[in-house]
Amino acid sequence: MTIKSVKKTIFKIIEPSKDNDKVSHIFDIVIISLIVINLITVIADTFALPPYAKKISKYIEIISIAVFTVEYILRLWTSDLLRPNLNPAKARLKYFFSFMAIIDLLAIIPFYLPMFISIDLRVLRSLRIIRLFRIFKINRYTKALNTIGTVLKNKSSQLISSMFVVFLLILIASVIMYNVENKAQPDQFNNVFQAMWWAVATLTTVGYGDIYPVTVLGKILSAIIAVLGIGMVAVPSGIISAGFSEVIDNNDEEGKKKYCPYCGHKID
Amino acid sequence: MTIKSVKKTIFKIIEPSKDNDKVSHIFDIVIISLIVINLITVIADTFALPPYAKKISKYIEIISIAVFTVEYILRLWTSDLLRPNLNPAKARLKYFFSFMAIIDLLAIIPFYLPMFISIDLRVLRSLRIIRLFRIFKINRYTKALNTIGTVLKNKSSQLISSMFVVFLLILIASVIMYNVENKAQPDQFNNVFQAMWWAVATLTTVGYGDIYPVTVLGKILSAIIAVLGIGMVAVPSGIISAGFSEVIDNNDEEGKKKYCPYCGHKID
Amino acid sequence: MTIKSVKKTIFKIIEPSKDNDKVSHIFDIVIISLIVINLITVIADTFALPPYAKKISKYIEIISIAVFTVEYILRLWTSDLLRPNLNPAKARLKYFFSFMAIIDLLAIIPFYLPMFISIDLRVLRSLRIIRLFRIFKINRYTKALNTIGTVLKNKSSQLISSMFVVFLLILIASVIMYNVENKAQPDQFNNVFQAMWWAVATLTTVGYGDIYPVTVLGKILSAIIAVLGIGMVAVPSGIISAGFSEVIDNNDEEGKKKYCPYCGHKID
Amino acid sequence: MTIKSVKKTIFKIIEPSKDNDKVSHIFDIVIISLIVINLITVIADTFALPPYAKKISKYIEIISIAVFTVEYILRLWTSDLLRPNLNPAKARLKYFFSFMAIIDLLAIIPFYLPMFISIDLRVLRSLRIIRLFRIFKINRYTKALNTIGTVLKNKSSQLISSMFVVFLLILIASVIMYNVENKAQPDQFNNVFQAMWWAVATLTTVGYGDIYPVTVLGKILSAIIAVLGIGMVAVPSGIISAGFSEVIDNNDEEGKKKYCPYCGHKID
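YS: structure for the whole thing
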């Protein structure tokens, strides 16, 4: 058994399981289980735990990091088989900077960093649960998610530009609101960033109620922003609706091309 | 008159009434009235009632339970006529585990359980009003509801997978938010579950205002979550819109199939 | 000049103005101006006014009531010309119970009632501003509003049945929430109606923050209701979207029927 | 080199840059950078700054105003080249009253006004950031924004008329709510404007929680308004969805026209 065949076998195991590949399937389940266990540990750590539970939590972390590190190295090593038409170095570099690989690296790196530099990276540890997105690679809703992803991608330029208008709106509303409300509520609207916090809460219609205008002018401006906030939901809804309709139309189009609209016979 | 014919008659009465079946119609009205009376009792019981009203409420309960129990037994007994091509035992078992039958059982069982075990199941008593869903079986909006149900069913995999992304988002946002806000507000963000409560209130744009970030980092994260919350409305809206358009298109399609698009003559 | 011709002239003046009918146009402007003046009076009356302003407000009211009463009588008198193929008595009765006529009557009746019975109907006085809806009869957005109205009417059965599901959901959630939260917050959730107020505020994502769950079970239930609240926006959005698309498709359909899809020639 | 050719060169530089025009591209970047720097200054001014920072902020303002003034004069001077088929005076007047030109004027005028009249126009100074909208003229999302603009313009009459219904609803709900809640909460609902503030917060589902009904009647009315608020999101969503679908259909239509639906051959 050569190194090349070992590599190929590992690659097959690591890749999302096909229906008839049992070893790969077991590997997927082990990794996802470990991620879920990590998630439970991260949540449990926020409670006041007895010493023995803290010990278990620590052991789980060491084992997880060991497994995730080996998995990461294997994925990086075999990543050249993902893109066979590129040269190995380039293929690995491309994989290294892919979305999933960056998440996988962020999940293990907070453990190793304190060895070299003395900083507390406990917050970064919680990033490990982002690996939960790996679930999408193995479950049966992948196709539906791909459709949603395609729609969002197709409409990305429209969505981004509508978000940019919203961003400008928030900026302008914040600056005006700061000038309007600052004198009446110097503690609440003490700078533009506070006004921005108000603008986001109003435009998204969250409205926590921790900050709101009290002057007449401020209330009128707030009412205008709140009404524009409806557009902030309605415009993306409209864009995404059209996106989903288009995807369906495209599928229909393909179906129609195969049949004559007149006699119903197949056309090749 | 044999048992078989009695059973058939009972089955016809119990089933949702057809236009010309008066007895079945009266039966439907009696049952729905009894459910509505039970709903009023459940609401009235939450107020401080005088003793005589409590007595009436108790009598209503006994009568309701008696009627609902007889109804449930009759439905179970005649349920083999619903699926004539299955053997009776299997047909009854299938009915026993159907959505409506489980609700009907949950509506009567809290009354009988205290006879055997000594627990207070008063909360479960309120489940009786779920039987209100039976109204849909007899009213004229059934067709419209079926269309809505069909759309939600057709799009279930897309809706479920978008809800799953939201669930992951809530998880990740909660863990990060707990780490960000815990030091500033140890009473509010005292564990990840509290942070989840905040995440749901923000993503759904409810924003009660009982819990919100006070740190700058927390506010930035909250703003991002609130903006993503718009997507949480816009994406399902888009999916469901496309679903409704499709249902209409399908109907149109059927209409189109009957006419030649070229000459306008009917095609058989 | 006979009574009949006088009646016809009055009818023409009262009806929404056509482009070339100047008298009718002036009449419309006078009535709308009077409604707007009444609106201003109703708003001004809520402030502490000086005596002379109260006097003006009273004079405006007397004049308005006089004009509105004469207008109402004339509309009722000439309403038989609206439906020429019905006999006069029936046509008038039909007009008497029309939406606009009821609003017009409600606008004047609170002034006359205190003459006969001694009750304070000042609240009903504010109903006069509902007459503002008359503006739609004379402005240029009538066509757009008709399209919206048609869509809502076409989809009314779907919208009503989805609202009915929401109503059941509010009922069931309220009863359960009352049982869950009553012990923890007896002052807030003191009966089912308070729980309903919470359910409406959560499902519609308003979230005032005056009432919210504090128990773990209550928070989980609240999270489920808040997420279902998204469906409450998404489902009607989808229904209405499809409705608007259909209206457009119908227009397209009509256009298509007139041309052969093959050669582009007109078909009669 | 004549004045005419100088003017033409300036016009080319000022106009949004084409891909191969480097000077125009640099000009765009300089102007946008200056606007962004101004934005940062406006935000920074809301914090308590040390004296030297205030000095820098002042210098930035003087330079910005100088550049923006020269830019404005040049744009106005060359604006007759924008509309070559009009006579120069008319073309300049049309440009003077265009949306972008008004924003540009509002951005510089607050600096010059205090020279003539002694008023504090510091609030107007923040209007300078509205110039950020100029970014749209030079970025790659212009096409997507144009599509959104076209949809909103096509549907403007429907959107405006639905907003008008909402405005009437707010008016009527406010007046009724004032009469219902005034006695119970004279401090909160002290006039109709306060009730309007409540109505806007409820209809848009913002729900700050600073004002809400406490009486039973007020809560019922509020529940109705909150449910109608869903329509306020659903109807514009539907209108805009249909608008986006239409734009796509139109594009498809053009594509379809080029092919015979029967034989699939190109049609010229």
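YS: worth flagging: Residues 253-268 of chain B have pLDDT under 50 and may be disordered.
IM: good catch. Also Chain B touches chain C through 51 residues (CB under 8 Å).
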